[in-house]
Design a protein that fits this description.
heterodimer; A: about 170 residues; 7-stranded antiparallel beta sheet; 3 helices; 9 strands; globular; B: 7-stranded antiparallel beta sheet
């Protein structure tokens, strides 16, 4: 006899959105190595959240022989949005700001880096497994953190937006 | 005598008394926890809970355990001397964390102003330690006001709230 959906639901290891870590890996260039000065542990501690890329296509749509014909068309680029809380006089903001300015002056191949996202599931919260790697990323935005005299008792945050050429899923 | 009453007596023993406790409150600026314990009039052992994760399946709700939550604070009510010695100890700790007057922070790292403290359940018979809990990363969150009145001849007392990250049973 098959298990009811309720029994199955008790056996599945549900995904907690807060159990994740990320690492930035340079792709063989001196410039992108700038970002690898942040360790995976530091980055995982500092990251507030990451919005993983929406995977969009531009579908091919043709009206042929009195019927619509569809095909998955061009895959659009992948955009990743990181929210980071900063430490020690905006170490991360300074690093990303410096990197994006350096990247502006080097060949695209020299500014590439990969971002790997790992997650853990319920019951296995210590074993993080890679789920996706955004390959050949470039940075497009380093949003400025807001400095505010009235915002005490909080940690400064800022966003970094990146685009990836392609993705590798595990 | 019924077996239920015998069983109750056997399991309860002398029974834990709420007035038999000891706090070991360690401040980075004052190390004599005995004085703080003697002057403590009331204390609580904080609770612990799980946040719920709701899994809905075809209209049925399955609740599973989320992450632990040590919500709340460790609260201690102190009696004080005429010199407000105990209040001074807690205020010195708070001043060490963040001094408005000096506009600086005394500690170089969070762990410099956080300490590990203990709460003990004592025996009714001989005051030996029967159960012990260690609270980690403790620091004062607030101290209460002290109310004065011509109509009241009671002792001055105030309560202090302490933040902590978690606790575990150590005995």
């Amino acid at each position: 006899m098959m298990d009811s959906p309720i029994e199955v639901a008790k056996q599945l290891r549900w995904q907690d959105p807060s159990k994740f870590s990320i690492s930035i890996m340079p792709v063989g260039s001196e410039s992108s190595a700038m970002l690898s000065s942040i360790t995976e542990e530091q980055l995982t501690s500092a990251i507030t959240g990451i919005q993983l890329a929406e995977i969009n296509t531009t579908p091919v749509e043709e009206w042929i022989a009195e019927e619509w014909r569809f095909a998955t068309g061009r895959l659009e680029h992948y955009q990743i949005d990181l929210t980071l809380k900063d430490y020690e006089n905006f170490t991360l903001y300074r690093l990303f700001s410096k990197a994006i300015q350096v990247f502006n002056r080097v060949y695209p191949d020299d500014q590439k880096f990969d971002i790997q996202v790992k997650t853990a599931t319920d019951f296995d919260i210590k074993s993080y497994e890679p789920i996706i790697t955004f390959k050949d990323c470039m940075m497009i935005t380093v949003a400025g953190p807001q400095l505010d005299n009235s915002a005490n008792s909080s940690i400064a945050e800022f966003n970094v937006i990146m685009k990836a050429s392609y993705i590798e899923t595990f | 005598m019924s077996s239920a009453i015998n069983s109750l007596k056997r399991n309860l023993g002398m029974g834990a008394r709420t007035n038999r406790y000891k706090i070991i409150l360690v401040s980075p600026t004052f190390q004599n926890s005995e004085i703080l314990d003697v002057m403590a009039k009331e204390a609580n052992l904080p609770g612990r809970s799980f946040n719920d994760v709701e899994v809905w399946v075809q209209g049925r709700l399955i609740t599973v355990a989320g992450d632990s939550d040590y919500a709340g604070t460790w609260n201690i009510t102190f009696l004080d001397s005429e010199e407000h010695f105990i209040r001074g100890v807690i205020q010195d700790w708070m001043e060490y964390i963040d001094s408005v007057k000096q506009h600086d922070r005394g500690a170089g790292a969070y762990m410099d102003y956080m300490t590990n403290c203990k709460f003990q359940q004592l025996s009714t018979v001989d005051n030996s330690v029967k159960a012990e809990y260690e609270l980690y990363d403790v620091y004062p969150k607030s101290i209460s006001e002290i109310s004065y009145s011509d109509e009241n001849s009671g002792l001055v007392e105030f309560s202090a709230e302490f933040n902590f990250s978690h606790y575990s049973r150590t005995r």
